[in-house]
TrEMBL record:
Gene3D superfamilies: Electron Transport, Fmn-binding Protein, Chain A. Keywords: Monooxygenase, Oxidoreductase. InterPro entries: Flavin_Rdtase-like_dom, NADH-dep_flavin_reductase, Split_barrel_FMN-bd. Residues 11-151 form the Flavin reductase like domain. Pfam families: Flavin_Reduct. SMART domains: Flavin_Reduct. This is Nitrilotriacetate monooxygenase component B. GO terms for molecular function: FMN binding; monooxygenase activity; riboflavin reductase (NADPH) activity. It comes from the Bacteria.
Length: 160
């Protein structure tokens, strides 16, 4: 029988970027750290995020029907920790706006989305987002692998 610990260890072997998902409900901005994000389709441009049933963000996205995916830059580890609840709140978070969406200032990429559909699977809800806007910077991404934050080393690698 597969243990939860073993499953988590296996999933941790997949290196991911780190995102902060943001939304706004009644003029209040909310965010949460997530690495469960991926692109789905180029035409139309769709992405998916996965939000746990116990996360406060779940009802907020259901209510707002919109979200932004902020792919954090290598120097934004502290922001990741704040939105993951690892650092006590009370620090000022530098939000800016991309159109009508709250986004994280200085992120490597900001991707705004309208909820296209939602699917409950296991203990998570998958939100399919129709991309409405994108803003990119030249920053390298923050990486998460095997339970630790990492940085992307600049080196020559062969293309896939």
């Amino acid at each position: 029988m597969m243990e939860d610990y073993q499953f988590r260890q296996a999933m941790g072997k997949f290196a991911t970027g780190v995102t902060v998902i943001t939304t706004e409900v009644e003029e209040e901005v909310y965010g949460m750290t997530a690495n469960a994000f991926m692109s789905v389709s180029l035409d139309p441009k769709l992405v998916v995020i996965s939000i746990g049933e116990k996360a406060q963000m779940l009802e907020r996205i259901k209510k707002s029907q919109k979200f932004a995916v902020n792919i954090l830059a290598a120097d934004q580890k502290e922001l990741s920790m704040i939105f993951a609840g690892q650092i006590e709140e009370g620090k000022e978070v530098p939000f800016s706006r991309l159109g009508d969406y709250p986004v994280i200032e200085g992120a490597a990429a900001q991707i705004t989305c309208e909820v296209s559909s939602e699917h409950v699977e296991g203990d998570h809800t998958l939100f399919i987002g129709r991309v409405t806007n994108i803003h990119l910077t030249e920053a390298n991404p923050l990486i998460f692998y095997s339970g630790r934050y990492r940085s992307l080393e600049e080196e020559e690698v062969s293309a896939i």
